[in-house]
Amino acid sequence: MSYQKKYLPLILGAAIAAGIFIGGKLNFSDAPDRLFTKNSKKDKLNRLIDYIEYDYVDDINTDSIVDVTVNGILNNLDPHSVYIPKEDMERVAEEMKGDFVGIGISFYTYRDTITVIRALENGPSAKAGIKGGDRIIMANGDTLFGDKLKDFEIVKKLKGKKNSKVNLKVYRRGEPELLDFTVKRSTIPIASVDAVYMLTDKLGYIKINRFAESTYKEFKTGLEKLEALGATQIALDLRENPGGFLGIAEQIVDEFLEDDKLILFTKNKRGDIEKSFATDKGDFEDGEVYVLIDENSASASEIVAGALQDNDKGTIVGRRSYGKGLVQREMDLGDGSAVRLTVSRYYTPTGRSIQRPYDHGNKDYYDEYFERLDSGELLDPDKIHVDDSLKFTTPGGKVVYGGGGIIPDVFVPLDTSMQNETLSFLNRRGFFSNFVFEELEQDRHAFDGMSREDFIKNYQVSDDLVFTFQDYLNLRTQAKVTFVAYHDEVKQYIKATFADQLFGNGAFNEVYNQSDIMIDEVIKLSTKD
């Protein structure tokens, strides 16, 4: 046998393997003369980093230089192409997946100690006997108190593999010694549906905070619950919802649209178009839907609102949405980090892009909220700027506009009382939450026997409690705070926070929505003949 014949199978095998490898790396839209060529600008960047690493006079963390470089490149593309460092990937992945493995508690660090606000219903901690107010002192022999311990370090100690066990030592007020609990870790959902309940006999309410992998399943469960309670109308609250997975938004729209209706289409840089249509899976096609949006409803939220509006289905209520019409794809960078790169634009069924311009830089782009506020747009629909060249018409004859968010069918101005800057600030900084926790600590049995429904309908926050909260703030902020103009609004925040810490599962929204003017408008619309 000749040399060539002997090694021919080996040579052919190697050639095929090389072809598969190279083929997997190629982008077939590239011209042949671009393949296997060096890019001098890429080489320049690599060479500069090497010079800094090996020859620069001081020791430099080149990883941080690469991170800065990547961010600098992305900042020159568009506002939504972003870099996710390795250390943030687990948190980001959990948020979008919709669950994690842990012990199932809501907690915060109170006076340097891990304090349980509430053990999640049917979660591993609740099953083990952990209660609100408990202080977790140790986990598997490691201390969990002290001002130097960060929240992410605590979470790391409490998380672990599914079905693994963690031994906790817990201080509980009134008990002479520390209590011992063994908790078996399990999958803990990160809820993306905040609240599901009936606003009226016919009108159900669903609040979605983001579009994660688990959102459609949560939404579907909520929808079925409301239908069983007699809902023939749905208020879908997408306010403050920044978006998420496009495919999840499509599934939710499908519940409301008739078969074969266009939901949206996307177009990439090569002009390739992909269309998404409603299927026969929708269970609420005959019902009425009201979609609540505001200036912070973005991306997937706008897909839902735009698809329904352009198909003359339901009513969009609120204020002009954020205006994000770009689609990102997450791409692994090989070292545990990733980039979410804009790969296409999406268009509503009438063909409009609702992406806001970003040619004046990221700062101007993200500061547009203040421009809307200053222009009066958040209080007066006549102040909304529209471009007649971006006018579209729905099949039913409704005029809609592209170029900057979804303009609602029914405008509801910003509620300047409930959105008072002082109250919003206090809520974001946790003052309401901490105050309510301390009030509960004084007597955790005060609400024993009171049901969730009874609390929401009948519990009243006293004037004395508002004044106590006022004193609480003045002591901790060294400021003179008074609530003369916002007395009732403060009561609403306090009651909603009590409901959240006592009952969870959307109780905050159910209380807070009782004074929400947009909810009031939807109820009025739903009762019209």
UniProtKB/TrEMBL annotation:
Recorded GO MF terms: endopeptidase activity; serine-type peptidase activity
Entry's Gene Ontology cellular component terms: outer membrane-bounded periplasmic space
Similarity comment: Belongs to the peptidase S41A family.
Superkingdom as given in the UniProt entry: Bacteria
Keyword terms: Hydrolase, Membrane, Protease, Serine protease, Transmembrane, Transmembrane helix
CDD domains registered for this protein in UniProt: Peptidase_S41_CPP
Protein name: Peptidase S41
InterPro entries documented for this protein: ClpP/crotonase-like_dom_sf, PDZ, PDZ_sf, Peptidase_S41A, Tail-specific_protease
GO BP terms, alphabetized: proteolysis; signal transduction
PROSITE patterns per the UniProt record, alphabetical: PDZ (PS50106)
Gene3D superfamilies xrefs: 2-enoyl-CoA Hydratase, Chain A, domain 1, 2.30.42.10, 3.30.750.44
Regions that span the bilayer: 7-28
Residue ranges of domain PDZ in the record: 81-144
Organism of provenance: Neotamlana nanhaiensis
